[in-house]
Each structure stands twice: as C-alpha cells, then as structure tokens.
Write a structure and sequence with these properties.
20% strand; 8-stranded parallel beta sheet; globular; 16 strands; 4-stranded mixed beta sheet
Length: 419
C-alpha cells in the first residue's frame, strides 16, 4: 500500500453560494513561470487559479478566508522521504538515547512539527524494531502519527536489524508484527546482516505478503549485491526505494553507470542525503544524482538525521537538501527542488501536486520571486496542508541606520531602526 492514495477531484460548483468556511484564497502569489496569481482552495484541493484579483470573494464560490502572499513564491509542498523519528532530537541527551515510549513520542512529534514548519507536509520515518526496543519505539511513533493527524502526514518504515539465520527468526516475526501494528513500509539495513541477500529476500517476501512498499538503507558499495537486489525487486509493486547510496559514486564510472541502468530498469528509486548519512550508515558524500537521473532512476532527496548522535546539527529541512544539490552537486534549482517535492512525493506513493486546479492543496509559499533565491534565502515560509495553513515562519532582518543604504536605495525591512 502506498503512503497515500490519490483521490479524484471534487465536482465543480455549478452555482454561486454562501461563503464556504473551509475554503481559502491565496492572494497575489508568484509562480515559477513568472505569473502573479490568486489560488482558491477548497475541500483539500486547488479549486481555481487565476490572475491576481480575479478570484475575489463572490465568484463561483465565496471564500471563507484570505492569505496575502504578495512577495512570496508559491510551490508544491516538499515531502520528507527519509527521517528517523525515534532518534530525532536526541543529540543533547546525557547517556544512551532513551527509548521510553513517552520520550520517543515526544521527539517524533516535535520532529514532525519542525519538518512541517520547513514545508514538509508528509514525512516517512524509519523506526528500529526488534532487539532491546522491541516494538515500543514503533508504537510510540504511531501514537505520534495519530496525534498529528490533520496537521501533517507521518508514515513509518519498520527496520529490523537481522533477518537471517537463527537470530533472524525473531527479527522476521517482529517485522510481520510491525506491519500488523500499523507500519506501512518494510525496510532495514541489509548491509549489517550476515547474509545481505537473504535479508533483502526476507523483506521482499513480507512486502509481497502485505502489499507494502520497501525502503532499504544501503551504502550501495557492492555492485553485484545491487544487481541481485534490482533483479529481485523488478516488478514489485508498490515499489522499492534505496538510500542513501553514497558509495555508488565511488565505483568506477562504467560500473556505476551499469548499476544505475539496472536500478532504472527495475524501477528502484534512490533517496540521497545531501547533508550526509544517518544512523548506521557512514556520513559520506551523496549518491551520484546526475548519473542516476541520466539513467532514468527516480532520485529524491531526504534530510536524514535531525540533531541526533549521527548528526547533531541536522536540520531536517528539505530546502536545505535542495540547496546542497544545487550548490554542490550541479543540479539546476528546478531539478534540485523536484528531488524534495515531485520526486519525493512519487517515491512515497503520494499524488502529484501542481499549482493547477484539481490538484491536492499541498503547498509551500517562500519569500522571494525566483526559485534560486528561495533556495538561497528561504527564511519566511507559509505551509499549506489539505487546503489549510498549518505553519508560518516569519523572518525579519533589521539593520542600524546607514547613509550608504539610503543613498543606494537598498531594500529595507523591519519594524524599526536599531540604535
């Protein structure tokens, strides 16, 4: 089962009626094609897009609320395809990370809200199951998911440590229990199992039994192992995702290209982590995104660690991932943003979003008028989930009075002057 199934758009309204309190009018937003538009939202979808001022209250359906987005760039909302909700925000803890249910639930909830504030209206969280924590961490994250319903969409990947041999029997039982409990994706780290190929076979078997997507952690440094995985994963629906695949770029170019072709043919998606690895995976460079994209592999970008012991300064910000891909790995701003929006949503099985009538109202408004500038200075943001404003971040920069700025006519913002 994908993280979310697309829903058909509602039938259009045939006659004017009273104000719809659930509708929302976004006024004066700029689109990436340069147009300035009004966007009307209703029933969790984009109902209409028109030139600025053309969708004022009193059209086919009067709006219940208005949000002025003058000076903002309106984009499809990002999605976070690779988070670790059970360990997020644990870097400052004294001693070992606590897996007490209330601690995990608090961290998972706070992390999801931080990521929502950044713009990610959907988050896929990888959660360890088995060993000492059993299913307790998963139960806590699922409780956080229930508490967040209506604010953000949080889904879980069950990640057992070992699935082969005598020790693997318990892990396999725990994995099946995790799916029954509510984990919507099965995964793990095959590189850490004594039999990585057997581990993948076990995960694919459970996924096939329950119709679940598969999401596996791997450095992708063994091309033969990746070829076997691609052969096994080919045709599996609803799909297989690998991350972070940092070692793939260290293979000889002809080997890496052949491996990318195999992944593309099998329909395997890759989630890279531009800020570095995460727990259990070395923090190295990102996957070779340009090579993978050229081969036809769907490449999404995730944030990975959010201030845990793997990366105590991790931000969990999709726009930072896009910024790094554009500034460090040679993608255009449009290509980079797609990895955290369109491609990330597709990797999660979520419906496509465009700023067009009929599409889901999952949107992010960022202060600025060009995508490149938004990725560079994405401080002020307005986040829309299911047609409602769920988060706002406003940044105000103030400077002391300066004759130079007055003479040059430089833009100023702020509530006053610093003395």
């Amino acid at each position: 089962m994908p993280d979310s199934q697309p829903q058909p758009p509602p039938p259009p309204s045939s006659s004017p009626g009273p104000a719809d309190p659930s509708s929302l009018l976004l006024c004066g937003a700029r689109l990436t094609d340069g147009r300035t538009v009004d966007v009307r939202l209703s029933g969790g979808r984009i109902e209409a897009v028109g030139t600025a001022g053309s969708l004022a209250a009193g059209g086919t359906r009067a709006c219940g609320a208005r949000v002025d987005l003058g000076g903002y760039l309106l984009l499809p909302a990002p999605a976070e395809p690779h988070a670790h909700a059970d360990t997020a925000l644990s870097a400052d803890a004294e001693g070992p990370v606590s897996y007490e249910p209330q601690d995990v639930q608090r961290r998972a909830t706070e992390a999801a809200l931080l990521q929502l504030g950044h713009g990610a209206t959907a988050v896929r969280a990888h959660v360890r199951v088995g060993d000492v924590q059993g299913l307790g961490a998963l139960a806590a994250v699922l409780q956080a998911r229930r508490a967040l319903r209506g604010l953000a969409e949080l889904t879980t990947v069950a990640m057992p440590r070992v699935l082969t041999g005598v020790a693997g029997a318990d892990g396999l039982a725990v994995l099946r229990d995790a799916v029954k409990m509510g984990a919507s994706v099965v995964g793990g780290r095959p590189d850490l199992d004594p039999d990585p190929t057997g581990y993948v076979e076990a995960v694919l078997e459970v996924a096939s039994e329950h119709g679940c997507p598969v999401d596996l952690h791997t450095d992708a440094g063994d091309p033969a192992r990746l070829a076997r995985l691609a052969a096994m994963a080919g045709g599996l629906r609803p799909g297989v995702t690998l991350s972070p695949c940092g070692d793939l770029g260290r293979l000889p170019s002809e080997v890496a290209s052949r491996t990318a072709d195999q992944l593309a043919a099998a329909g395997v998606a890759v989630v890279c982590l531009p800020q570095g690895g995460c727990g259990g995976v070395d923090r190295r460079g990102a996957a070779p995104v340009r090579l993978l994209r050229a081969a036809g592999v769907r490449v999404a970008a995730g944030s990975g660690a959010l201030r845990d012991v793997s990366n105590p300064v991790g931000r969990g910000d999709p726009l930072e991932a896009a910024f790094l891909l554009a500034s460090r790995y040679g993608l255009s701003p449009e290509e980079a943003y797609d990895t955290v929006s369109g491609s990330a949503r597709a990797a999660l099985g979520l419906p496509e979003v465009r700023v067009e009538a009929g599409f889901p109202a999952e949107l992010l408004a960022v202060r600025g008028d060009r995508l490149a500038g938004a990725l560079s200075l994405a401080y002020s943001r307005v986040v829309v989930h299911q047609g409602r404003v769920m988060a706002r971040t406003s940044a105000v920069r103030e400077f002391c009075s300066s004759a130079a700025s007055v003479e040059l006519g430089l833009p100023r913002q702020g509530r006053g002057q610093l003395s």
